[in-house]
């Protein structure tokens, strides 16, 4: 009995420590790959409405990528980006000689409802043993729980030529802190890029 309880506690610890973010789909340009180089300039843009969140996300991404990455908020104001002027955006990227553009946006938010089965004690062998173990335990009724799933799309474009070279969508369940979520997304994306052979 003690061994069973220890096993359950270990399993719960592993579950609680595991990241809540995972890659659900990805795509890369056939044959495309990227080897980190200090000579490359990478433009980083978090496409979110809240300015403080945008800065927080971009700073976290820039810190992860390195000194060759530039946060969009140091180049474009939020009002400029809201205009959606594609020509202005593209000309600025090319004029400042960026090699890659990394865009991140929330693609979707979904509520997922699931049913948790009732917990009951069930011991077999004899009614005496069943009574001994189960006398102080009561089955709790089942219940419904709702998770909020955030799907975030991360895309990487080359500038010359202007084309998509890698994209991936992550799913984060019930994110609590933006810093932790961005870190998990960064881990999931970079691990998938390496697994796909895109990131060398």
Task: Report what the structure shows.
With 200 residues, this protein is α/β, with parallel strands linked by helices. It has one domain (20-196): 3-Layer(aba) Sandwich (Rossmann fold). 36% of the residues lie in helices and 30% in strands. It is built from 6 helices and 6 strands. Helix 2 crosses helix 6. The longest helix is centred in the last third of the chain and has 19 residues, at 178-196. The termini are far apart. Mean pLDDT is 83; it is low at 1-17.
Helix-strand layout with pairing:
Elements: H1 2-17, E1 21-28, E2 42-47, H2 51-65, E3 69-71, H3 78-82, H4 86-95, E4 100-116, H5 127-134, E5 143-158, E6 163-173, H6 178-196
Parallel strand pairs: 2-3, 2-4
Antiparallel strand pairs: 1-6, 4-5, 5-6
Produce a short descriptive summary.
The chain has 200 residues and is α/β, with parallel strands linked by helices. Helices cover 36% and strands 30% of the residues. It has helices at residues 2-17, 51-65, 78-82, 86-95, 127-134, 178-196; strands at residues 21-28, 42-47, 69-71, 100-116, 143-158, 163-173.
Secondary structure tally: strands: 6
Regarding CATH, which class?
A: Alpha Beta
Strand order of the largest sheet: 1-6-5-4-2-3
What's the main sheet like?
6 strands, mixed
Global outline = elongated
Number of helices: 6
Chain-averaged pLDDT: 83
Which key features would you list for this structure?
alpha/beta, elongated, 6 helices, 6-stranded mixed β-sheet, 200 residues, 6 strands, Rossmann fold, 36% helix
């Amino acid at each position: 009995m003690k061994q069973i309880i220890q096993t359950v506690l270990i399993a719960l610890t592993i579950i609680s420590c595991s990241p809540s973010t995972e890659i659900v789909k990805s795509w890369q340009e056939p044959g495309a790959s990227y080897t980190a180089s200090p000579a490359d300039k990478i433009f980083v843009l978090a496409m979110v409405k809240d300015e403080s969140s945008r800065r927080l996300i971009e700073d976290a991404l820039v810190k992860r990528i390195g000194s060759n990455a530039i946060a969009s908020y140091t180049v474009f104001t939020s009002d400029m980006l809201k205009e959606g002027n594609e020509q202005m955006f593209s000309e600025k990227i090319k004029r400042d000689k960026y090699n890659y553009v990394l865009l991140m946006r929330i693609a979707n938010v979904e509520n997922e409802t699931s049913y948790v089965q009732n917990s009951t004690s069930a011991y077999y062998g004899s009614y005496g043993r069943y009574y001994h173990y189960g006398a102080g335990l009561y089955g709790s009724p089942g219940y419904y729980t709702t998770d909020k799933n955030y799907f975030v799309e991360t895309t990487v474009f080359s500038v010359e030529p202007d084309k998509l070279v890698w994209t991936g969508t992550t799913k984060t369940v019930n994110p609590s802190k933006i810093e932790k979520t961005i870190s998990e997304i960064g881990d999931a994306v970079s691990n998938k890029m390496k697994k796909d052979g895109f990131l060398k």
